[in-house]
Amino acid sequence: MKNKETRYQELLTEVEGLVTGENDEIANMANIAAAIYAKFGFHWVGFYRVVGEELVLGPFQGPVACTRIAFGRGVCGTAWKEARTLIVPDVDQFPGHIACSALSRSEIVIPIARAGAVVAELDIDSAERDTFDAVDEVWLTRILAAAYK
Predict the structure, then answer these.
(1) CB within 8 A of 71, min separation 6: which ones?
(2) Separation CA 137–CA 74 (nearest Å)
(3) What is the DSSP string of 68-123?
(4) Is-contact 123 98, C-beta < 8 A?
(5) CA 11-133-3 angle, 5° bins
(6) Under DSSP, is residue 19 helix (H, G, I), strand (E, B) or coil?
(7) Residues 6+ apart with CB under 8 A from 126
(8) What's the pTM value of the predicted model, to 2 decimals?
(9) 14 contacts 37 by C-beta, under 8 angstroms
(10) Residue 131 has what DSSP assignment?
(11) What is the pLDDT of residues 6-61, one digit of tens each?
């Protein structure tokens, strides 16, 4: 099995190919979620978009998900409020965690910002604890930077 960094490097190249020349944000979100899901087999991979005062579910891969999340609520709402990536090794230990799926055990949420404001987030859940680390943060941030120039 290839190591995590090698798989992320391959994924970055794939995502760059998918988004080059495509300006539709929803289409790009859909392909990015599908590419990450296919490459890593995480429990859930998807996007939430900032719409008014809520995060609204965007394209995703995996089981059904929470449709709307309030500012500052749960992992996604907290990442939005703090405008920073959150890595949660054990979601059961995160105060106010929203259990969209009882199978989720760890999570990473990476905000996407424009002009200093969060406009969307990439949310990835794993069915295993302690799945995500700094390697995931670095590579997923690079992938999002390639897609949201």
Answers:
(1) 53, 54, 55, 77, 80, 81
(2) 19
(3) EEETT-HHHHHHHHHTS-EEES-GGGSTT---S-TT--EEEEEEEEETTEEEEEEE
(4) no
(5) 45
(6) helix
(7) 42, 43, 104, 105, 106, 107, 132
(8) 0.95
(9) no
(10) -
(11) 999 999 999 999 999 999 999 999 999 999 999 999 999 999 999 999 999 999 99
User: Could you tell me if 48 and 76 are in contact, meaning their C-beta atoms sit under 8 angstroms apart?
Assistant: yes
Kindly state the DSSP code that residue 129 receives in the 8-state scheme. Answer: T
DSSP assigned state of 128: S
Residue found under tokens 């992938």: 143
Q: Dihedral angle at the C-alpha atoms of 147, 21, 114, 112, nearest 10 degrees?
A: -20
Domains along the chain? 4-147 (3.30.450.40)
Q: How many distinct helices (H) and strands (E) make up the chain?
A: 4, 6
Say what the pLDDT of residue 1 is.
59
CA atoms of 79 and 27, how far apart (whole Å): 23
The total number of residues shown for the chain amounts to: 149
Q: Report how far residue 35's alpha carbon sits from residue 32's, in angstroms, rounded to the nearest whole number.
A: 5
CB hemisphere CA count around 73 (13 angstroms):
12
